């Protein structure tokens, strides 16, 4: 008869809360990696399977089915209903029925400016862009068939390099994430104010949609007795794109209990920088794995870079020799 034994020298592994947290963040890292790698593929697929709705003047829409200029070679499948289409050439009344994401090509001089009918007619709208947003303008009366194909190519390139605001706005609206623009700096980089409770979710969205490089993170005291701010400078680095996109994020918190979600598990470069912000200003970054002082000794009292900080009235003089 066999009997299981448990000698005292056998140590059973235990699962602590910290190890479970690391396993959870490890899974999140791989999820980020998979999703961020799939974004360019999805953009390529969307740009290659546009579904235009065939509504428009016959002199313009007749170019769609020519043997030399047919849309099928570019992956465009004409649809008879706006509820199945994501590209319109241009039928204003049907725009609202199309699902997101949807795109508009303004085709012909009459569509772009109102043409010759806009000079002496009060009832003619001088451009379709006054009613709906236009992605690509296709001038001509009528445009040449090759110009239509060129407009489709430009639209596909535009879809492939959509900026962060166009991509994250639907996600923010769906999840109730609110931010406020604080304007642009001298280089044209926009600064956004994010609530502390929304910062981690928005950070994940920004990373997934291409902002894979955090240039710097810092913090400052807004005013004596006022708010504390944590600042993040993000850059979107993409292969084959010369002009990078940048955005600045500011997260404000009360100095009485300054707590901000850490983004260490999104951008690992914030490790020492968040520790320095904690050391100098006392901002607690939740879920940071090593949040402790980095410049001052652990026994130091107070936060040296706060504007209401009172320096201790003693100085340690060391022998230079």
Question: Which whole number gives the mean pLDDT?
Answer: 74
User: What structural class do the secondary elements suggest?
Assistant: alpha/beta
Number of helices: 7
- Low-pLDDT runs of 5+ residues are 1-24
Question: Judging by the overall fold, what is the CATH architecture of the largest domain?
Answer: 2-Layer Sandwich
Could you tell me the strand content as a percent range? 15-25%
What proportion of the residues is helical, as a percent range? Answer: 25-40%
Tally the beta strands. Answer: 11
Q: Radius of gyration in whole Å, from Cα?
A: 28 Å
CATH superfamily of the largest domain: NADH:ubiquinone oxidoreductase Nqo5 subunit
Shape descriptor reads elongated
User: How are the strands of the largest sheet arranged?
Assistant: 5-6-9-8-7
- What's the oligomerization state? single chain
What is the H/E order?
Answer: HEHEEHEHHEEHEEEEHE
Number of domains: 2
């Amino acid at each position: 008869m066999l009997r299981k034994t448990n000698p005292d020298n056998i140590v059973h592994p235990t699962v602590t809360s910290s190890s479970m947290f690391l396993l959870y963040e490890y899974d999140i890292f791989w999820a980020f990696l998979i999703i961020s790698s799939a974004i360019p593929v999805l953009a390529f697929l969307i740009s290659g399977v546009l579904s235009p709705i065939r509504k428009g003047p016959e002199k313009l829409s007749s170019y769609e089915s020519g043997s030399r200029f047919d849309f099928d070679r570019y992956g465009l499948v004409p649809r008879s209903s706006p509820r199945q289409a994501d590209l319109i050439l241009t039928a204003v009344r049907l725009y609202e029925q199309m699902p997101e994401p949807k795109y508009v090509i303004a085709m012909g001089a009459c569509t772009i400016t109102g043409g010759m009918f806009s000079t002496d007619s009060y009832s003619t709208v001088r451009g379709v862009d006054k009613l709906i947003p236009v992605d690509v303008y296709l001038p001509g009366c009528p445009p040449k068939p090759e110009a239509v194909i060129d407009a489709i190519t430009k639209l596909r390139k535009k879809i492939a390099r959509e900026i962060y605001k166009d991509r994250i706005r639907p996600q923010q609206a769906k999840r109730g994430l609110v931010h406020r623009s604080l304007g642009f700096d001298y280089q044209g980089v926009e600064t956004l104010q994010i609530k502390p409770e929304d910062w981690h979710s928005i950070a994940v969205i920004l990373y997934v949609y291409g902002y894979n490089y955090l240039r710097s993170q810092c913090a400052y005291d807004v005013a004596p007795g006022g708010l504390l701010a944590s600042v993040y400078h993000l850059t979107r680095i993409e292969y084959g794109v010369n002009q990078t996109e940048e955005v600045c994020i500011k997260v404000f918190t009360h100095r009485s209990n300054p707590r901000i979600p850490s983004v260490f598990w999104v951008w690992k470069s914030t490790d020492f920088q968040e520790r320095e912000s904690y050391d100098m200003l006392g901002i607690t970054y939740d879920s940071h794995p090593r949040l402790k002082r980095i410049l001052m000794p652990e026994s130091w009292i107070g936060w040296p870079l706060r504007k209401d900080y009172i320096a201790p009235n003693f100085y340690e003089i060391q022998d230079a020799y």
